[in-house]
Every structure is written in C-alpha cells, then in structure tokens.
Design a protein that fits this description.
Blueprint: E1 2-8, H1 33-40, E2 47-53, H2 54-57, H3 62-68, E3 72-76, H4 82-94, E4 98-102, H5 104-108, E5 119-122, H6 128-137, E6 140-142, E7 144-146, E8 174-176, E9 179-180, H7 191-195, E10 200-201, H8 204-216, E11 221-224, H9 233-249, E12 255-259, H10 268-276, E13 279-287, H11 291-296, H12 307-315, E14 320-327, H13 336-347, E15 351-356, H14 364-371, H15 400-414, H16 417-430, H17 439-442, H18 446-450, H19 457-473, H20 478-510, H21 529-545, H22 554-569, H23 578-596, H24 616-619, H25 621-639, E16 657-659
Parallel strand pairs: 1-2, 1-3, 3-4, 4-5, 5-7, 8-11, 11-12, 12-13, 13-14, 14-15
Antiparallel strand pairs: 6-16, 9-10
Helix pairs in contact: 8-9, 9-10, 13-15, 13-16, 15-20, 16-19, 16-20, 19-20, 21-22, 21-23, 22-23, 22-25
Length: 660
C-alpha cells in the first residue's frame, strides 16, 4: 500500500467571502476541492490518501513527514504559491518521498518547477493521474504527465473528503464546482488558457450530490467555484431550479455564492432564480469605468447597456456584488483613479477588489505586451512584498510610480468606512422586494454587530448609520447587511496592512531600486503564426487523423508537428508560402511514422478508418493544440538560458522514464 499526502500550501488568507462571524475554529475560506478530486481519482486497493491543508493542519515539516511517512507528496497551487510549493518539495525530498506538482501554476510555466519536483502534472488531471499511478505501481513513471484535450466533467468523480471529514468545521464555506471554461475572451484573463473557451459542466445529479455532502458536514454556505457560472445559461437555470427545491428539503436553507458576468443583468428570469436559490453574493469582473479600456481588453460583455443600471438591476434582487476592478489599462490616464472611485460609489457596489493590471503568462495581454517589450521579469527583484503591491507591466499612459500612487490612493479611499456605508445604504434602497424579517434577524442590531469586530469611532458611526437605514427601509435585509459589514471589517484590516507595503514599493520604484528588466525567458510565437495556424490546421488535422494508428496520441502528434515547424522557421516566419505546406506534410508523416513505430520508408500516409472525421471546432481542439505548442516553445527557449534541456513529453507512455 503506497501512501500519498496531497498538500495545499500555506497562503495569504485574505478572505473574499469569509464574513468574520465564524467561530475561532475556522482556519481557511474553502476546503481543498482540487485535492479532494484527486483523492477520488485514486484507487483504494493500492493507495491511501491524506489531504493536508497547511492553513488548517500546519506547515509540512520534518516532524509531520516523520509522522505521516508518505511515499509521495503531491502539491497544488497558483503561481504566487511557487516559493512555498518548492519549500514543501525540499522537505519531502529530504525525507525520502517522491514529489509531484499540479495546478494552475505549473500548468502555466512548467520550467519554474522542474528543478524541485520529480513529477509534473500539466493541465487537468482526470485522465493523467490514473496513468501515473499505474506506471508507479509497475516501477516506472514519467517526469511529466500532460493532458491536452479537456476532459469530460461527467467523468470527474465526486470529491473524496474522507481524510479531513472531521476538519470541515474549520472552513468558512463549502466548495462545489459545476463548470470549467469560459465563453468570453478577456485579454488579461488566463481562464481560457487553463480551462478553454467552451464551458464544460458536471451532470446536475453529481452537483446536487456534492451540495448535499457539504451540507451534511454542517456547512451553511457554499461557493460554486466556477469561472463563469452563467456560461451555459440553460444549464445554470436548470441547476438553480434544482437548488431551490433542494433548499426546501433541508432543515436550514443553504446560501450560495459564485462568479459570473454582468451580462446576466439583462436576464431577469435568471436574476429571480438566483434570488430564489438564496445567492447572497456574486463576484463579477466589472474591471473599469472606462469604456475604451473595456473595449480594448475585449471585455465586450460589459459594454452592453449602461453599466451602472446593469449593476443596480442585479442589486435590486437582493444579490450583493463583489466587484473586481482594475487600473492600469493602456487607455487609462491619470484621471482613472478618481473616475473609478465615483463609479464604485454611484454603482453602490457592496464589496470591491481593486488590482493593478498584470499580464499573466499565456494570456493575450501577455503575448501582446511581450512583443511590445513591456513585460517585466519581476523574479529578478527580491522582497517585493504582497502580490498586490506590484505589477509586471510597463503601463502605456502612466508611469509605474503614477500607477502605484493612484492605486494606493484609490484603495484607501474606497475602503474608508464612510465610503462603504454610502454604498451599502444605496444597495439597501435599491432592493425592490426585500424579505420579511425573521426572528433571528430581529435580534441583530448595531450593538450585536459591533461586538463581533474591533470597531474604531469611524467604524461605529458607519455601522450605526447602515443599521438605522436598513431597519427603516428593509429590515429583512439585516442578515445580509450584517455579513457585508463583517466582511468589510476584514477587508479594511487587509488594506491597512497593505498601505505601508505600497508606500515602500512606491519609494523603491521612485529611487530606482526595482530592476525593470524586460522578461526574456520566453518569446511568444511570431505574430503571423496564429492566422497561419488557423488556416492550415484543418488540413494537418485531417492528415494526422487518417495516418496515426493510435488516436489517443493525435493531440501529442499535432503538438509536435507545429512545434517543429516553429523551431525550424522561428521569428523569421512572416506568412505561409507553398513550401511551408510541403514541410508540414513531411513533418506530419515523419511524426506519425514514429508514433506508429514504423520506419519512414514503410510509412503509408493514410489508413482505413471508419466513421466521420470528428469536428475539431466543436472540440475546440485547435485552441488546445496552439496553447500547448507555445508552452513547449517557451520551455525550449527557457531551457537554453537557465536549465538543462528537458525532453519534451508528448505522451505518458513515450517520455523518458525514471526507474524506482
């Protein structure tokens, strides 16, 4: 029996959704859904799995390793967890365990993790985790397992929480994922890069089973952790109807929250379903009050109708909005900070998250700014502090210092208690059909709320004003208002801690103490490559489909064809010529011959295959291949300057293997 320890790294616990009311036992916002899914993918006959959330269970150190004695330590995390992930790997290796890493961070930049981990899992793992476990049992495994096509979520198992069932009271909210992927294509967002443009969804019965499971743990609120809950509107409405019925079955109704686009503001049926299903808060990427910034960031869904009217319509159903706001777009000038403040106040946004624009690896924004020489390699700087205190771009119409100063002033102003009170009172006035007050709501007053927080005179005055306004206009909203106030108290403390760090960063930038070296670790494909790729992909896809013997390897074959094409022509490529078509056909035949395990001279470019050619457009296969090609290209470029060359892995069964 092999023992696996799956670790969620310690992270900054800034709570987007925690109300501040929970008991002192609460240690983290959400339980580790990704790790629980991996646990469910693991057969129990030959493996035992223990989940380890460092925010809840403590740091993984030598003592923990001695107690747990795992054969494998698997870690997940985002890019900002890189330091802690690598520290965990060092502890595990020192104690004789194999180390593996998965998640968005390693999927975006594998080369940052190769020196620290034995095994890398790139992209989603529903299909590759089992391959690794089988290889491991046989005494061999690959250094990388990469899933190119997006897995069917109908085959994703119900997460297994068994190993931390007794610790679920340490989480503020439950987590259930209903979909992956987003139909929108915002320039600065990496969701499409990670999960694709076509939303995939779990069967409704699976989602409802997961919700009931979370309720059975005693969790009263559940976050549906989708990037765009309303991406498939028909599916989302069907799920909302089921959640309404489910709440009627439970002794105490669950509350829900999620993430979605402001586009739903024009669908009043959808808004009513959200309200009836007890959604009390949704995160929305509002981003900017500057229409030009939204337009050029391809945030077109925010440009339909009047933005403030759309926001007010959502709020009128009693659904609070946690708004993501960004400053530093190319169309932003020095006036943007004041514009954003007045927009936020007039919109009556109940909760706000403000960030400076950054260019995440692999996004269209990153590709464009890399070509313009405007992405900074922030890894060359030490002691940068909180990730919200710096950006990796050179703004267009602002200096970096102007952006930092404006961001600091805007953050301080938005999070004052007076500004917050104005917004919440506006929200309360907007709700058109507030619920009737219940017995438990009637006991909540300003004194009750203030007893739950450390209140300054400014906070006390704001709380009294909000409570008085709510009791006068919509006393049934007191429960939601209480939650908003306690949330804001947490956010306010975060901003108070953040401002001195911003001041230090402004001072460093002003004095030239920040290395502004252009990021040259990876160069995107030439500008002309994507339109050429889109043009030739159907022909190459057809040729490979009817030539390869094992269709499970078609994505790896296509990746290798276009990767070799780019390596051959590189930055000199300016457009398709006749000889490029011949070269692509030769590459396709050569790589198919290798995969078919036949010599080139004995290879036949077409084989008999029944059935129609699958529709690659419906599968979004071209997007997945293109993404994989430039990741591979980035790795090759990166390896030439900082790490030894690593053989590109096209299939778990084909890569170089390590004997154990």
């Amino acid at each position: 029996m092999k023992k696996i320890l799956l670790v969620g790294p310690l992270s900054d616990n800034e709570a987007l959704w925690v109300t501040g009311e929970e008991s002192v036992e609460v240690k983290n916002n959400f339980p580790p859904l990704g790790l629980a899914t991996v646990a469910a993918l693991t057969p129990t006959e030959n493996f035992s799995v223990q989940l380890w959330d460092e925010n809840v269970h403590g740091l993984l150190d030598d003592q923990v390793m001695a107690e747990q004695k795992p054969d494998l330590v698997g870690v997940t995390g985002y890019k900002h967890h890189l330091g802690r992930c690598c520290a965990i790997a060092k502890v595990a290796s020192r104690n004789g365990s194999l180390t593996a890493i998965g998640g968005p961070g390693v999927s975006g930049s594998p080369y940052d993790y190769r020196n620290d981990f034995d095994i890398l899992f790139i992209n989603e793992v529903e299909n590759t985790w089992g391959d690794f476990l089988n290889d491991w049992l046989q005494g061999n495994f690959n250094s990388e397992y990469r899933q190119i096509e997006k897995p069917d979520l109908a085959e994703s198992p119900i997460p297994c929480w068994d190993s931390i069932a007794s610790d679920m009271n340490k989480y503020a909210m439950g987590t259930v994922q209903t979909t992956r992927g987003c139909p929108f294509d915002c320039e600065f967002c990496d969701v499409i890069y990670l999960f694709g443009r076509r939303p995939r969804h779990k069967p409704l019965e699976n989602v409802l089973e997961e919700v009931r499971m979370q309720a059975a743990f005693g969790l009263k609120s559940i976050f549906l952790c989708d990037d765009e809950f309303s991406g498939n509107r028909r599916y989302a409405k069907a799920l909302l109807s089921e959640l309404i019925d489910l709440n009627k079955e439970l002794p105490e109704s669950l509350t829900f929250s999620t993430q979605m686009s402001i586009a739903i503001s024009r669908d009043e049926e959808f808004l009513q379903l959200l309200a009836d299903a007890n959604f009390d808060l949704v995160f929305m990427g509002i981003e900017s009050s500057n229409p030009e910034s939204l337009k050029n960031a391809n945030k077109k869904q925010n440009l339909k109708g009047d933005m403030i009217e759309n926001i007010h319509r959502v709020l009128s159903y009693g659904i609070g909005i946690r708004a993501g706001m960004i400053v530093g777009f190319d169309d932003d000038n020095i006036d943007i900070f004041e514009q954003q403040y007045h927009f936020i106040q007039e919109s009556c946004l109940t909760s706000v998250a403000i960030n400076m624009l950054k260019a995440p690896l692999g996004t269209p924004l990153w590709i464009r700014m890399m070509r313009e020489g405007r992405v900074i390699d922030m890894a060359k700087n030490k002691d940068l502090g909180h990730a919200r205190t710096y950006t990796n771009i050179l703004p267009k119409r602002l200096s970096r210092v102007e952006l930092l100063k404006g961001y600091r002033e805007l953050s301080e102003k938005v999070f004052t208690w007076d500004s917050f009170a104005d917004r919440v009172c506006g929200y309360v006035s907007l709700v058109k059909n507030p619920p009737a007050p219940t017995a438990d709501i009637q006991v909540i007053d300003a004194e009750w709320i203030l007893a739950k927080m450390q209140a300054s005179p400014e906070a006390s005055a704001a709380v009294n004003r909000i409570v008085e306004h709510t009791l006068q206009h919509a006393p049934g909203l007191m429960g939601k208002v209480k939650t908003l106030i306690l949330q804001h108290a947490s956010y306010f403390d975060t901003i108070v801690d953040l401002l001195p760090q911003l001041d230090r960063q402004i001072e460093r930038e002003t004095e030239g103490d920040v290395i502004l070296a252009v990021d040259s670790r990876a160069t995107p494909p030439p500008v002309a490559f994507r339109p050429a790729f889109d043009k030739v992909f159907p022909e190459v896809y057809r040729r490979v489909y009817f030539s390869i013997s094992d269709l499970d390897k078609i994505s790896h074959c296509l990746t290798e064809v276009f990767l070799e094409f780019l390596v051959r022509w590189g930055q000199d490529f300016t457009g398709l010529e006749s000889y490029h078509y011949d070269f692509l056909n030769e590459l396709a035949d050569k790589i198919c011959a290798k995969i078919n395990n036949v010599s080139p001279e004995n290879f036949k470019p077409c084989i008999a295959r029944e059935g129609e050619l699958p529709n690659y457009k419906r599968l979004r296969l071209a997007d997945d291949i293109y993404k994989n090609v430039w990741i591979e290209l980035a790795e090759l470029q990166h390896s030439q300057v900082s790490i030894p060359v690593v053989n590109v892995t096209y299939s778990p069964k084909q890569s170089s293997q390590r004997r154990v």
